């Protein structure tokens, strides 16, 4: 019979002499002789040493594979050789009886449980239930649970009501591909899994709810990255009625820093108010709309002094410079730095130095000798300065400089304060942009955002000059969230979509519920949705988001443990009126 008296992380010296029952996994055993061995028993809470002192129990264990689950009845006693590193290191249990509860039928494990993080990632994901037995891996999931619980508690304390929104909904242009679900009762029609609860939370505001939140599942058919899980992710979704941008900022600036300080690997987090940086300024000074403010280096414009220096890649281009004082990198280090920038950005980086004799040396310095004084003065150089350079059209030069800044910052503690969480708001995003793929005018961020200046701006300004009440929350160079003051006026909404080529009938067809609801008098409202997965990844100090998700997919959006995606039976396809048509590969003559 089960019914443990204690868990494996609980027993202490004051329990000595007590009869106890423990249950858990048979982690390993160190055999000293045929009637003496030291067994480690592990459960969710920790480990306890079991000292086997009879030949009978040793024989029983010799027939048992590691990772079997067992029940141990025995007596607690003080250890003669204590282990100060373990909470239970002062005691051991001498068993009187061991019972097998769940036998492991494999002699060999796919990896050692306590070293599972060293195994190939796909093997870890295939045997995730074993990977999660590793206390280090399991600890990240426990951490996630605690963070989510605290987020819920804090949002409730701020008078937000938790409301769940539908998972089966209609396809909506959120910026990524939808996961589609065929309808059995409506042939040829499809549901879509929500990329975000965007429309539903705005409809809740129109319904008269004042403050909404949920830990919302979101589904996007997009490729994996280190900070993005394919398929499914979770966000702290929130919306506020009769609210401004500053109201949203005030809530998150009160909710997030205590959680980062409490659970984070760094105990220091930005105090409110967080720094507010307009989008154009962020691109100009940091080369990124996700700036890592722990890095002290800034991007400077060097176009005027360097564009006509005779160096081909600079001619007629925007040139950006980053000055790194006393950078000690060797030529080999600099070459690798420039190569890494090119790999990440697709653009080349260039450089030169001002040495201790105030001479320009290395890199492209030979093109600058005739205008040395002008270069030194324009960039404010001092002896020992390293100058990294990028060039191209404005956006290309900025983005490449942002990559270079990040890499230079990470190269030295002199440029980066690493042991803290630095938050900032990126504000005043452009309402529209020219799409890189389409070459046409598109919404820059969220199509439901309120333009700054309202209807007048839409009617009288160049669309590319219109700013929106849109904002991103950034922490340590990672975008945690996007949000906006919402467009709650049907007239302004129709005009905003007109500018990208959609008429009023298109708006009514694509967003019928929202358009009609707003026609009945909607409150001004604003919201945001920080990503829970990214938040936990930052707090835990992990490089990969898969480490903090209980059952993640691999980089190819496959669940190798469950075998998803998988083929289904023909009967199931008929039920939803789907036929699989396989494309025939064209035969080419050699």
Automatic annotation (TrEMBL):
Binding site for ATP: 220-222, 479, 531-534
PROSITE patterns: AA_TRNA_LIGASE_II
Residue ranges annotated for the Aminoacyl-transfer RNA synthetases class-II family profile domain, each copy included: 143-550
InterPro entries, sorted: Aa-tRNA-synt_II, aa-tRNA-synth_II, aa-tRNA-synth_II/BPL/LPL, Asp-tRNA-ligase_1, Asp-tRNA-ligase_1_N, Asp/Asn-tRNA-synth_IIb, AspRS_core, GAD-like_sf
Entry binding sites for L-aspartate: 174, 220, 445, 486
Catalysed transformations (reactions): tRNA(Asp) + L-aspartate + ATP = L-aspartyl-tRNA(Asp) + AMP + diphosphate
Keywords on record: Aminoacyl-tRNA synthetase, ATP-binding, Cytoplasm, Ligase, Nucleotide-binding, Protein biosynthesis
Cellular component GO terms, alphabetical: cytoplasm
Top enzyme class: ligase
Region Aspartate, annotated ranges: 198-201
GO BP term, example: aspartyl-tRNA aminoacylation
Entry's Gene Ontology molecular function annotations: aspartate-tRNA ligase activity; ATP binding; catalytic activity, acting on a protein; nucleic acid binding; transferase activity
Presence of the UniProt keyword ATP-binding in the record: yes
Cleavable signal peptide: none
Enzyme Commission code: 6.1.1.12
Localization terms from the record: Cytoplasm
Function: Catalyzes the attachment of L-aspartate to tRNA(Asp) in a two-step reaction: L-aspartate is first activated by ATP to form Asp-AMP and then transferred to the acceptor end of tRNA(Asp).
Entry similarity comment: Belongs to the class-II aminoacyl-tRNA synthetase family. Type 1 subfamily.
Subunit (UniProt): Homodimer.
Entries under HAMAP family matching the protein: Asp_tRNA_synth_type1 (MF_00044)
Protein name: Aspartate--tRNA ligase
Species annotation: Hominiventricola filiformis
